[in-house]
Amino acid sequence: MDLAGVLLTVAIASFFAGAPLSLIRRDLGYLTTFGAALLFGAVAVDALLFGPVRGAAWGGPLGDVETLSLDALSAFFALATSVVWAATSVYSVWYDDRPSPVLAVTYALTLGAIALLVTASSEVLFLIGWETMTLASYGMILEARGRTDRVYSAAFVFLAFGEASTLLVLLAFAGLFVGTGSLAFGPTLSGTVLPSLVFVAGLLGFGLKMGTAPFHMSEWLPIAHSSAPSNASAVLSSTLTLAGAYGLFRLVSLLPGPPDWWGALTLAIGAISVLLGALFAAVSEHSKGLPAYSTIENNGLILVALGVSLLAGANHLTLLAVFALFAAFYQALAHALAKTVLFLSAGYVEHLTRTFDLSSVEGRATGPDRAALVGTLAASLSLAAGPPLAGFVSEWMVLEALFQSYRFGETWAQFVGLLTGAAVALGAGLITVAMVKFVGFAYLWKPRCARAPSERGSLGPVVGAVAFAVLTVGITAPWILVLLAPSVSVVMGSSVAAPIGGLLSVPNGWSILSGAPFGILSPPMVPIAIAAGVLVAVGYDRLGRHRAVRRVPVWMAGSAPAREGETYTSFGYSTGIRLMMSSALRTREVRANAGAITTVGFEAVEPYSVELEVFDVFKLFYDGLLVVGEGVSRVLKERVMPGQLGRYLAYVLVAVLVVVVYIASVST
Amino acid sequence: MTSRPWSESLRGPAGALGTEHAPAYLPIDRAFALVNDYGTGRALLWRGPAPAEANEVATLWRRAAEAPRPHRVAPEEVVEGYGVFTFPYGPISMGVPESGRFDVRTYGERILTLGPVAGFKSRRILGALPGLTPEDALLRVERLAGNFSAAHAAAFLAAVESAAAIEVARTELWTRALAQELERIYNHLHQIARVAEAASQNVGLAQTHALAEEMLRIEGRTFGHRWLFGALAPGAPTRRLDPEGRRWLGRALRELSGRFEVLLELFLGSRTFVDRLQTTGVVSRERAVRWGAVGPVLRATGVAWDDRLRAPSVPYTDLFLELPREDGGDALARILVRAHEVRSSALLLEQLLDRWPGDAMAREAPAPPVGPGRGLGRVESPSGDLVYEVRLTNGRIASVGMRSASHANWPVFAESLRHAVFTDFHFAWESFGLVFAETDA
Lengths: 668, 441
Fold this sequence. Notes:
The complex is a heterodimer of chains A (about 675) and B (about 450).
Chain A: H1 3-24, H2 26-50, E1 53-59, E2 65-70, H3 72-95, H4 102-119, H5 123-142, H6 148-180, H7 193-210, H8 221-227, H9 230-254, H10 260-282, H11 289-314, H12 318-353, H13 369-383, H14 390-403, H15 411-444, H16 460-475, H17 477-492, E3 500-501, E4 511-513, E5 520-521, H18 525-543, H19 570-580, H20 582-585, E6 588-592, E7 598-600, E8 602-604, E9 608-613, H21 619-640, H22 645-667
Antiparallel strand pairs in A: 1-2, 3-4, 4-5, 6-9, 7-8
Helix pairs in contact in A: 1-2, 1-4, 2-3, 2-4, 3-4, 3-9, 3-12, 3-16, 3-17, 4-5, 4-9, 5-6, 5-9, 6-7, 6-8, 7-9, 8-9, 8-11, 9-11, 9-12, 10-11, 10-15, 11-12, 11-14, 11-15, 12-13, 12-14, 12-16, 12-17, 13-15, 13-16, 14-15, 14-16
Chain B: H1 6-10, H2 28-33, H3 42-45, H4 57-65, E1 71-72, E2 79-80, E3 85-89, E4 101-106, E5 111-118, H5 134-142, H6 149-164, E6 168-169, H7 170-198, H8 202-223, H9 243-269, H10 271-277, H11 285-290, H12 295-299, H13 307-310, H14 331-354, E7 363-364, E8 374-381, E9 384-393, E10 396-403, H15 405-416, H16 425-432, H17 436-439
C-alpha cells in the first residue's frame, strides 16, 4: 500500500469518523467531511492521472481479497462526488442550525457510504455501501422541516424505492456471481441469456436510484429529494444519483458485448425520463421540487448517452460508442456540479424568505447575495444548456451522438434514435422554461418587499465557487475529456483516446470531435469569442462621446405594481405549458366554493377559488400496484397466516420434510 | 319618466326570453336604466327599493361622470386561487387602439375574469355642454367618438328637437339617415378589417382597409368631411344633395358593395379565419337579453332587435329594412351580422337615394318631450342602441346624458371572455366594436 492508498483509506475512514465527531460538535463533523472530501478528490485525481490506487485490503467471505481501491472508472466518480461534498460540507456548517446532531451524523454516514461503494472492489462491499447509503439518506430526509406526516411519507417513499432498488441490484449481482463464480469486480460475464438478465435487473435497479427506470419516477425522487434538508438534497440529487450511474457503468464494464436491444431499451427509458422530467420541472412551483425533476431529466440524458453507446457497440461503431460514453460521463459531471448549486441556492433562498413556493418568493439579490445570484444564474444556464457552460457541452455531445443514429444498421434502431433525439430536444426546450422560472422567480423577480438580511453571513462564496467549477469544466471541456479517457477505457474494455482535435486556426486539442468526420465544437473558443465581442462593445463605448442617460418615470403599465398581486406569478409563467401539454399532464381546473348564482337584474357570481391541477399519469401505475399489493396481503393474512398455532406447526413440519427430502436427494 | 321601482326597471321586459323575436320592444325607460353606474358599482347589485333620486336619470349620469377615474365598466368578480394574479393589460397596448386598461384575472394564459377599466381618456365633453347653445354643443358631440359622429349627432339633435319641440325639415331627416348608413358601412368595414388583422389575414386586411378608405372618401365627397363633422344640423339641412351627387353616390356604393361581396366570400372561404372566430367570445341569447346587450352583439345571438325597426323614426318608417341575424353568438356571428349589414345598409341607401324627398319645405314633427324642456333621442349606431337625453333651459343646454352601445355592451364583452385564452382577446374585442371614447365622454 503506497502513500495514495493510505490517504484513500484515511479519507474513507474520515468520512465515517465525521459521524461520531458530529455528536461532539456539529461543525467538527462537517469540517471532517470537508477535509475527507478534499483528500478523496486528491487521491481520485492521482488515480486518474497515474493509474489505480489500492487502499486497505482484507480477506473476503469466499476467500478472496476485499480492497478499497480506485481504478479509473471509480476515480472519476470519486472526483465528481468529492467536489460536490466539499461544497455541501462548508454549506452545512452555515445551514445546519438544528438542535439535534442527527442530520450531521446521517450526513457523514451517507458520504462515507457513497465513498465506500465507489471504492469497493467487490459486490459485497458495494452492497454494504449501497444499503448504508440508503438507510443514512432515509435518516437525513427524516430531519426535514415541515409537516411531520409529509416528511414521514417522503422518507418512507424514499426507503421503499431505495429497497426496491437494492433488491434489483442484488439480483443483478447474484447473476454476476453465478456466471463468473467470483464476488469481485473483475472477471467479465459471458453467455447470452444471463448477461441480458443481469443487465435488465441492473438497469432497473440503478435506474431506480437515478430516478429514471421504465415508469417515470416522479412519484418518488422529487418528493424525497425536495423534502430533505437542502444540504441533504444536494447530496442526494447530485451524488446519490451519481452512485447509481457509477453502479450502472461498473455493471456494463463487466458484461460482454451488448445485443442491440439493450441500447434500445436504455434509450427508451432515457428518452421518457428526459421528456417527463423536463415537463414536470417546467410546471413545478417548489423551489426544490423543480431541481429534483430536473435531476430526472439529466439522469435520463446519461441513460440516453449510454444507450447510444450500447447500440453503437452492438453495431460495431466503436468511434460513436466511445464518443457517446464520453458524453455520458461528461453529462454526469456537468449535472452533479450544477445541481449542487441549485439545491444549495434553493436552501439559501428558503433560509432568507422562509418559503419553498416560487410564487411567494419575493425580493431581489443585493450586496453579498449577488455572488449567489451569479452562481445560480450560471448553474441554471448550464442546466438549460447555455454556452460556454458545462451543460451546454454535455447537451451538445448527447445530441451529436443521437444525430449519428443514422449509422445504426437496423431501420428500427435508427428510428429509436430519431425519436429519442426529438424527445431530448423537446426536453431541452422545456427545461429552459424551468430554469428561467427558477432563477427568475427565486432571484430576479418581485421588486417590492423588504427581505431580512441574513444574520449568519452570505453563502455567495460557496455557491459561486461551485458555479465557477461549472464554468471551468465547460470551458476546459477538451482537457476534461482527456482526463476522462482512462475511465471510459475501463467501460469500453480497451484503451481509448479522447475525441478531441483541431480545425482551422483553433489549436489542436482545443476542440471536441463527434465523429470522423461529423461535428466539431471548441468550448474554449466560445468565451474567447464572447470576450472579443465584449471588448469591441466596451472599446466602442470608451471611444464614443458623452453618453446621455435619460431617466424618466415609467407610466402605469410599465411601473411597479400599485397593488398586491399584480405581478406575474411563477405559476402563471408556466401555465402555457400546462395548457399546451394538457394531454400529457392531464391538466384540469378545480373550482371551490362556487356559490349559487344570484340574479338581480344582472347576474352576480359569488366569489370562488380556482386551482389548475396537473396529474402524473404514472401515478395510476403505483395506485394499481398499491391495490394489488393490499389485496395479496389480505389474502395471505386471511388464508395462509390466520394466527392459528396448528397451521404454523404444520408449515414448520412441511418445511422440515422438504429440507430432509432435498438433502437426501442431493447426497445420493 | 316611469315611477316604477328601480329594481323592477332593471329586470328587463317581461317574457322577453320566451318568444322567437324577443324582445319586440325594449321600453325606453329600460334603456336608461342600463346606464352603467359602475363607478359606484351600485346599479348592478341594487337590491330592493332604490333611493329616491334613482328615477332621475341625470343624477345617475352625473354620478357616473364624477366617478373616480379610472373605473371599471363591468361588474367585478372575485376569483382567488393558487398562482392567480391580476394582469393589467393597458392602458397603452399594441392591440387596443385607445387608452384603456383591462384587468385580467388569470393563473396565466387563461382569462378567469376580465375587468375593463375606462377613464384613461376622459375628456369631460358631456360635462362641459351645459350653458352652450345646441349648435355649439353639436360641434363637441360630433367629436366625442369620431367613428360614430353621425350617430351621436343624430341622436343628440333628435333629443334637442324633442326637448325644444322644433319641427324638422324632412330633407334633414333623410340626410341624417343617409349619413348614418354611410357611417355604418364604414364602421363595419373597419371592424372587419380589424378582425382580419387579428387573424393575420393580410391580403384581406389590405383589401378591407382599401374599401373602408373608399367609404371615407365617399363620405368626404358627399358631406365635405371624411368623418361627417358638420354634416348635420338642427332643424334644417346645411347642405343640399343635388341629383347629380345622388347619382354618383348610388354608383359608387353599388361598385363598393360589389367588391365587398367578393371579399366576403374570400374571407368565409378561409379556414383559418373562420376557425379563429368560431366559438370565440360566445354570448348566449339569454345573457345578451338579460344584460341588455345591443346592436350586432344582440343580433348575433338571434334577437332581431334594431332601433330602426323597433323604435323607428322618419325616414326608417317608410323604408324596407332587411335585418340580418345570426344564432351563434360568437365572434363569427357578430362579424357575419356586420358583413350582412353592409349589404342591408347599401339597400337602405339605394332606397334613400331613389326616393329622395323633392319637397324642400316639408317638415316633420319631433318626438314628444319626455318632460318639461326634456327630450330623448334614440338611434341605432353602428355598434347598437344609442340614447341621448337633453334638457334645455332658455334655449341653452341644461344637462346632457348619453348611454352608448359601448356602455351597454361592456359587461357582456367582459363576460364573453371568461375562461378564454389570452389570444382570444383580440378577436372578441374587435368583433364587439367597443370604444373607450364613448364611455370616457
